[in-house]
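User: Um, what's this?
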Amino acid sequence: MQKIIIADTSCLILLHKIGHLNLLKDIFITVHITSVVALEFGNQLPGWIMISNPINNDLLTILNATVDLGEASSIALAFEQKNALVILDDLKARKLAANLNLLYTGTLGLLIIAKKMGKLASVKAIIDKIKITNFHITSELENQILKKSGEI
């Protein structure tokens, strides 16, 4: 059974900024986001991004006490699904997902997946584009990603 892929806003914004939003489609075919994430993203969505919202508003309210509304809605939606992977970049959101036993990755983790699937020739080239944006990557994290992707 294929996992349901749920993306938070930061992933969409970052990949859009560097011109690689379609990398999500190349890896997963269909990606789900919440209506809150769609509003935060603020750009037209391609047809392969589906809007789905969590049903449990009480859970959403509880999660929103710890993380922002976009992250809370993404985590709540992932929590309600049986087989979901949620894409989160914020450390607090990732810790919350881990505490809820959710499967998660970040945008940089997607690069490793894409490389291993043969959908990306060079993780380093993408990281170089990312470093020009306001997304912070430490040298240590960059080296970890490059090692995991087999580029160093």
Observations:
- The first helix runs from residue 9 to 17.
- The mean pLDDT is 95.
